[in-house]
Amino acid sequence: MSHPNAVLTPRHRLKVARLVIDDGWPISEVAARFQVSWPTVKRCVDRYLAGESMQDRTSRPRRSPNRTPKAVTKRCVSLGQRLREGPVQLAARLGIAPSPVHGILRSARLNRLAYVDRATGEPIRRYEHDHPGSLVHVDVKKLGNIPDGGGWRYVGRRQGEKHRVATPGKSRTAYGSPKLGYAFVHTVIDDHPRVAFTEVHDDETAVTAVGVLHRWAYARCYASEAERRSELESWLHYYNHHRPHTACRSLPPFSRLINVPGQYT
């Protein structure tokens, strides 16, 4: 992927090289047309002749002879968890500079005492019950209904207001504005496997909100509230069966369940 200030995208780099090699254009003319330097065009041509990709190369060096050894890195993390000292103190114990120690602690999320448990020194992780059914979260998220034609988040406030006024079948306020109402998304999430079950109702039975549902509710531009509700089932299937969850070691929540109907068929 090209960096934000790149003049030539990979597609245009290929076009530049083909103009020189296939069409016989001089490098100077191609450089003037695309407003780049002569060496830039020459580099694209050399890559094309060598059969290399036009994608941006990584800036990471192929070799890092001065990189901190893995043994020192592991010892630094171990000392950081056990002693809870800063980079300067740990650097004196390890015989290296404080800057690489800070980088190691930051990578291990040990650079701040607020990130670690005071009793064990381990990085703080969210709690988790041992087996399915031990704890179930029941939450409700209140969402404004989408007018026919799309809401203001994607079409803009002016056009969204026009869609809201033109939505049929809604009661009106004293000022003539339609009452679109709200959708109350009721969600049940098992604490151990993180499996979620969701239904949409027109009334509310709880006062808490589910932040993860924003990925479904505002994932894209929906033309109407009916379209958004119809997408909930497929989104829920993706969340339970395919979306990697950090609490499940980057596996989907259903990977923690056994003897689920249809799992082994």
TrEMBL record:
Q: Name one GO biological process term.
A: DNA integration
InterPro entries attached to this UniProt entry: Homeodomain-like_sf, Integrase_cat-core, RNaseH-like_sf
Specify the domain of life of the species encoding this protein: Bacteria
Q: Per the UniProt entry, what species is this protein from, by scientific name?
A: Streptomyces paromomycinus
Which parts of the sequence belong to the Integrase catalytic domain?
Answer: 214-253
One matching Pfam family is rve_3
For this protein's source organism, the top of the classification is: Bacteria, Bacillati, Actinomycetota, Actinomycetes, Kitasatosporales
Q: What is this protein called?
A: IS481 family transposase
